[in-house]
Amino acid sequence: MAPSMTHVRGTCRRFKAHILMMIVQIGYTILYFITEASFNRGLNPHVYTTYRHLVSALVMWPFAYFLERSLTLNMYFASLKYTSPTFVTSMVNTIAAMTFIIAILLRFEHLDIKSPRGVAKAVGTLVSLVGATIMTLYKGPAMRNFWEALIHIHGNAIHESWLKGSILTVASCITWSMWYIMQVFLLERKQF
Question: Is 164 inside a domain boundary?
Fold first, then answer.
């Protein structure tokens, strides 16, 4: 008696991790045969590695472009144009604290102030935010450089709009935090 289509689907769904693992291993085996054949014909291993990365970039580019466009990175790099690298770097340090705060607001995380663990989380979040604020706002004395700079940046050092850049940086950090929180849903759904 032939198995029904729902039975086949159920079996495939049940053994999906095993099937995917076998497909990956078959792919690696084919890759090793191609690699061995290439080396036997005199291809340099460094050239082969370069070709392999180029082919993988070309194959993965459409998926990355259409399925994983990153609003976070676009806002992050745009904010560098309007602010300073010091400001952007210090704000990126707040991503962990923002992720924790957003997780509490969305009720993914519970903060128990009565426990030592909860107090440590709250204090750590506060220290992170205060440290980033101090690092952003404090203008200390200029440091003397004893060596010549390795990189010289020529061009206009005046940034266009600090307000626009600050908004982009904060929005970038918030979307980055949201991306981390969204991974909770993905990991729960992808469990085999």
Answer: yes
Other CB atoms closer than 10 Å to residue 176's CB: what's the count? 20
Tell whether 25 and 53 lie within a shared domain.
yes
For the stretch 60-78, pLDDT in tens is: 888 777 766 677 778 888 8
**Quick one: how far is CA 3 from the chain centroid?**
44
pTM: 0.57
What does the chain come to in residues? 192
User: Mind listing the pLDDT tens digit for each residue in 98-121?
Assistant: 999 999 998 888 889 999 999 999
Residue 78, exposed/middle/buried by CB under 10 A (0-12, 13-18, 19+)?
Answer: middle
47 and 76 housed in the same domain = no
Domain that includes residue 181, residue range: 71-139+159-189
Nearest to 181 by CA among 108, 117, 111, 124: 108
Q: Specify whether 112 is located in the same domain as 182.
A: yes
Give one DSSP letter per residue of 46-97, joined into a string: HHHHHHHHHHHHHHHHHHHHHH---HHHHHHHHHHHHS-HHHHHHHHTTHHH
One domain, residues 107 and 130 = yes
